[in-house]
Amino acid sequence: MPQFNETELTAAVIRSFEDAPDARAKFLLQELVKSLHDYVRRTDLTFEEWNYAIDFLTRTGQKCTDIRQEFILLSDVLGVSMLVDAVNHRDRDGATETTVLGPFYVGEHKVTPHGTDISADLPGERMFVQSRVTDLKGKPLAGVPVDVWHADDDGFYDSQKANYATQGPSSRARFITDAEGKFHFRTILPCSYPIPTDGPVGEMIIQTRRHAMRPAHVHFLVNARGYEPLITHVFMEGDKYLDSDVVFGVKDELVAKIERRTDAVMPDGTPASEPWHLMTYEFHLKPGTGMAPAPLGVKVAEDA
Ligand SMILES: [Fe+2]
Fold first, then answer.
1. Who's near 227: CB < 8 A, 6+ residues apart?
2. For 5-32, what is each residue's pLDDT tens digit?
3. How far is the CA of 5 from the centre of ligand 1 (A)?
4. Ligand 1 center to residue 151 CA distance, Å?
5. How far, in Å, CA of 127 to CA of 198, rounded?
6. Active site includes 157?
7. DSSP code at position 227
8. How far is CA 195 from CA 51, 128, 187, 267, in A?
9. What contacts 12, CB < 8 A, 6 or more positions away?
10. 126, 150, 164, 193: which one is catalytic?
């Protein structure tokens, strides 16, 4: 019977995966074992700490539901989501920068006519969003589904509210680009918001004296056939949390100047009785492949 010391044990566990039929899975598992064992050795991890870690991960899993994903949140606040994003998007070649998907890509994003106010029932300062989707040479891409979602004026997404099951989606929709690659819609100005702090991830953020805030943004998922799916945000210039996003998701190129306007009508002719805001942002897609993630709570990914 083999007797292992702390380094021989690592080699033995790595060897135990030697016959795994899937080469990539074998590589990922062996590297995971190396990193985990290194962590235990470097930290002289105690039994108490190991038990705490197991309990923390257990509670993280138990907090998840069909429409709540505490593990995405954990990945986000540890910077893992942005690191996976970085290693997969090393060469942008002029394509729009990417950022985290986040835990609030939830439920059906209904195809919605251009110009619709997707936050019609919500209080807040009104905003008109106009956008265009092109390839890297500026050629408009028509018929492209663009999913949009953002927090409300109180900093919550629709799926975080008690009435989500009965009221359905709010401040989220799918637009299809027109022949010029354009789409536009109305909404409210989103505000900066804290990630959920009623679960183990939020508790960790509070206990470690980090702040839980994300700078105001609108999420976009642009999914055109023959192009890499683009998962990104547009952030509001001037937000005080741009330099300290709790999920490390801000990139300079994704920060947009949101113009405050006093015109009596919005660009599509909608009357405006009070000042409003204008967001203008273009998305440039890189040729390629890849599957866009399915929203939480939706069993089968919709075919773009
Ligand atoms: Fe968000």
1. 135, 141, 285, 286, 287, 288
2. 888 999 999 999 999 999 999 999 999 9
3. 46
4. 7
5. 30
6. yes
7. B
8. 26, 26, 21, 33
9. 2, 4
10. 193
